[in-house]
Amino acid sequence: MTNVHKDALFVLVKSLSKSEKRQFKLYVGRLGVNSDAKFLALFNLLDKSKLYNEKNILESGIVKKEQLSNLKAHLYKQILVSLRLNPVNQNIRVQIREQLDFATILYQKGLYKQSLKILDKVKTTAIENEEKNIAYEIVELEKLIETQYITRSIPDRANELAVQAKKLSGQNVMTSKLSNLSLQLYGMMLKVGYVKSDDSYKMVQDYFEKHLPKYKIEDLGFREKLWLYKAHLWYSFLIQDFLSCYKYANKWVDLFYENKDMIYLNPVFFLKGNNYLLESLFYVKYSSQFKQTLQKLEAILESRSFPKNDNINSLSFLYLNSNKLNKHFLEGTFEKGLYLVKIVEYGINKHKDRIDAHHVMVLYYKIACLYFGNGDNKSCIQYLKKIIDNKNLKMREDLMCFSRVLSLVAHYEAGMDYHLEVQLKSTYKFLLKMNDMHEVQKEMIKFLRNLGNIYPHELRDEFLKLYTELKKYEEHPYEKRAFLYLDIISWLESHLEDKPVSQIIREKAMALKR
């Protein structure tokens, strides 16, 4: 999948719904002078075009080449203004910011009393809704106005504002430190995946302990707790402590259920928290709670009261379908999950401008695993090829590495072993280049490389040798991550017991059911 350059204005125009386009034209036409405006003509042209083509725009005669850049910038701004006026986009943050703008205008006109009245009211709203950055900005403007407009109605007004500013500043600093730590740990996860050795474990541990600020949990508000749980969650993921992942993802989600108004004010964080909770439950193989959590999330997303917008729709598609695939992996019901392939393909195409390449590749890997578990190795190879051929993917090195290892296994299973030696060398070089050569991968490659020298009647013994060797690493603190991407143990057991791999996983799921 290649990165195609897309014009920002064109992408914005194409993202508009019918009602948003209608509102934009009404907004433009509110004054008769705009009916023939060049920017409206450009909007209509882009709306009708399937692809962005600058040559077509210039040939239309709407604008000269030297004026095109300015016209595009003007149209972009006008669309954003129109969207801002749309009631759908009037969330609490926009409303608070709007009131702050009004207060600033009144202050600039010297109407201090009116400005302070608006600020005092909107400050309360901001604090109640955990919008502490803008609350601090409001207090700073109040302080500025108070130096020019002396009111005797509140004698210790200066002290009150100073105390309020200090408190908000401290809370914002704490949030900033925790959000910085969370973001850095998330970046590590995307770049290199889980820790791979004692050295990398120590490095992550030292970084976390050094950058985690001191706090008292009772002093933290909703926002600070949210970032604290996120930081702990990413640290737990990095060191592969999945029970701890479950603990902090659960705290994250419970925080929203304890503060239900925040679900509708911060729907993205609510969705992400549920996604990580489901991922943690998947890793600890807690199937009954996994299903309950997934059903509960689906019910909330379908409710009328849950916010709806393009970003939320894209995230809902991503998280729901990713976890629906995980549900079939957890239960070994690969065949039942095949219906999801078309849904995922359609969704990727529909949301392609809002889902990054990394998440698309993760979905492709899950589809590949679905086909592999169902015994359709050729389809598995097709989806792995989308990842392996992606030269622009710079994140999740572990995903790229395991895609190649699974591709080798799928080629062997499909009887497509005529180019296996070339692929083995290519995969071996790639793993060395990525510095991702672990014992599980070494054993897999050694096994596949020796297949050409093994007689058919010796094959079962070789599978048994590999199985015995790999079982040693199933609970290894660093090697076990290989089994998160590919259930090699179940694959070997399927050959040893002469059963489909899906049956082996189903039997394990039934034994683990809780």
Task: Outline the structure in words.
By secondary structure, this protein is mostly helical. It is built from 26 helices and no strands. It has helices spanning 8-15, 18-28, 38-48, 54-59, 65-85, 92-108, 112-128, 132-146, 157-192, 198-211, 222-238, 242-258, 261-265, 267-283, 287-302, 310-331, 339-350, 357-373, 377-388, 397-413, 420-433, 439-450, 459-471, 482-485, 488-496, 501-512. Helix 23 packs antiparallel against helix 25. The two termini are 40 Å apart. The model has no long low-confidence stretch (mean pLDDT 85).
What is the topology?
Blueprint: H1 8-15, H2 18-28, H3 38-48, H4 54-59, H5 65-85, H6 92-108, H7 112-128, H8 132-146, H9 157-192, H10 198-211, H11 222-238, H12 242-258, H13 261-265, H14 267-283, H15 287-302, H16 310-331, H17 339-350, H18 357-373, H19 377-388, H20 397-413, H21 420-433, H22 439-450, H23 459-471, H24 482-485, H25 488-496, H26 501-512
Alpha carbon gyration radius: 28 Å
* Overall helicity: over 70%
Structural class: mainly alpha
Number of helices: 26
Q: How many beta-strand runs?
A: 0
End-to-end CA span: 40 Å
Shape: globular
Characterize the main sheet.
none
Portion of residues in beta strands equals under 5%
Element-by-element helix/strand order: HHHHHHHHHHHHHHHHHHHHHHHHHH
Average of per-residue pLDDT values = 85
Low-pLDDT ranges: none
Name its key features.
mainly alpha; 514 residues
Please sum up the structure shown.
By secondary structure, the protein is mostly helical. The chain has 26 helices and no strands.
